[in-house]
Amino acid sequence: MLKPPFDAAELTVGQLAARSGVAVTALHFYEDKGLIHSRRTAGNQRRYPRETLRRVAFIRVAHRVGIPLRMVAEALAELPEGRTPTRADWSRLSAGWRAELDVRIDRLTRLRDDLSDCIGCGCLSVDRCVLSNPDDRLGDEGAGPRRLLGERLPGESRHGPA
Length: 162
Ligand code: FES
Hints:
By secondary structure, the protein is mainly alpha-helical.
């Protein structure tokens, strides 16, 4: 029932879900985000152009490698007249996303290594735990709220009002 005719120019949402392997709710979400588009029939049912299958495949693959939907939407919006990504588009976009993935992999590797120090500890100390207090640039100045301690009112010494 959901299998579209081989030469169908348009697909129902059920057919698109069956062919793409993406849940109907996810397809509705993609449409809400402007990633795919449909027209409505007289009976208010969605009909997707057949090339939406390739668009959904593009979205799935990009999302699977960790590209946020926001970036996928930006990439799709750059294509002329909302065109479905071609092989050349995918090649160009995936090359650009590789740098983004490298940054994320570096960040996750650092987090994993930091987490190794926490395993079996549980202190969550702001002094000792790099995950509890990442990028602690003021910690070397001493304990306490360094920014608040460093700010003095006019006429006030470091030890209180003059
Ligand atoms: S929980 Fe103790 S160092 Fe992170």
